[in-house]
Amino acid sequence: MSTPIVQGWCPGAFKPMMSGDGLVVRIRPIAAEISPIQAEGIAAAALEFGNGFIDLTNRANLQIRGVSTDNYPRLMDRLAGLDLLDEDPDNEPKRNIVLTPFYTENDLSHRLYQALLARLPDFPLFPGKFGFSIDCGPKLVLKDVPADIRFETSAAQGIIVRAEGCATGVEVSEAQSVDMALALADWFMKTRPDDIRRMPKLLLQQKLPAEFQGSGPADTSEQSLPGNINGGLSLAVPFGPLQAEELSKLSKLDTALRVTPWHALWMEGVDAVQNTRLISDASDPVLRVHACAGHPFCPQATVKTRQLAADLAGRWDGQLHVSGCSKGCAFPKSADVTLVGRDGTFDLVTNGAPWDEARQTGLAPDTLKELDLT
Ligand code: SF4
After folding, report:
1. pTM for this one?
2. Residue with CA at minimum distance from ligand 1 atom 2
3. 349 Cα to the center of ligand 1, angstroms
4. Cα of 324 from ligand 1 centre, angstroms
5. What is the distance, to the nearest Å, from the Cα of residue 135 to the centroid of all Cα atoms in its chain?
6. What secondary structure letter does DSSP report for 287?
7. What residue ranges define each of the domains in the chain, with the CATH number in brackets?
8. Per residue in 249-290, pLDDT tens?
9. Is 221 exposed, middle or buried (0-12, 13-18, 19+ CB in 10 A)?
10. Lining residues, ligand 1, CB within 6 Å
């Protein structure tokens, strides 16, 4: 199996990443929300400067892809006009925060988000993918979303600041929470060797000081599936790329769109949306299929992924992952069936992750629809 290139950093708006089809420009919505005007503006910008699609990422960000270097400055002007850029570009890489999409204005999660945002300049510049989650509703919804420092509801319904990789966190008051996160961040930065970039990896080789432990998190609640949840409607975007026309259509509903880390948009107070290709049925088989951008969008891919994934959806009850290479960006864990691109063909892994040993190798893409993958 070929070794994928680990970039070790995430693109931003100020620091776009060159991909197979042009620049990837990532927008990090403030408080996981875009207004109808911003949604319409992003849709128009994706059509005018990008490839007409907007990716929803697993850290609840939006990406405009396929941007030429000539168009990039004009796109940035447009995003600035929509109030979608950080005033200080240095804050952008630090603003790697996933906020529960189900907060209400000025509730505890929202207040902690605002407090953390205000103190970001005090935090060190972390390695590229290091980030926070804020999940302070009665039950946790972000347990499976990657983060390094978590603000969570404790089992006793207080607040804990928890290092990912440790089962417990330290109980804090609201006023103490950001200072505690800062202390934990400082410990991480001072303790980590240069090649360790994430908290869980550091905790495999360094004991977390007792001052950052003690209280367990609250129970979790599964909210990642689409449909009518939490007093609103969650619409899933198959595999993550959202057509600009669909986003434009949603902007006409005149309600804010919350970007979730589950490739879905959640709209408070909305029951149903007519004439959309987005998914509101939690039993839709496409929801059990995962696929990254693949060829020609990612330079590491030698195979097309998303059309194959769509063609294979519904053939199993279990999870299927079609990955452009062994890095496994779309679903970096074990699936029932994983097809991994390599040199224009696919390797088949069963009950494993893309980097695990393959059961069959060198499968031609046009044979996969006929293959018994069970
Ligand atoms: S898994 Fe897909 S998106 Fe990620 S590096 Fe490989 S080909 Fe690219």
Report:
1. 0.88
2. 324
3. 16
4. 5
5. 15
6. G
7. 17-87+227-268 (3.90.480.10), 103-212 (no CATH), 285-370 (3.30.413.10)
8. 999 998 999 999 999 999 999 999 998 989 999 999 999 999
9. middle
10. 4, 292-294, 298, 300-301, 323-325, 327-329
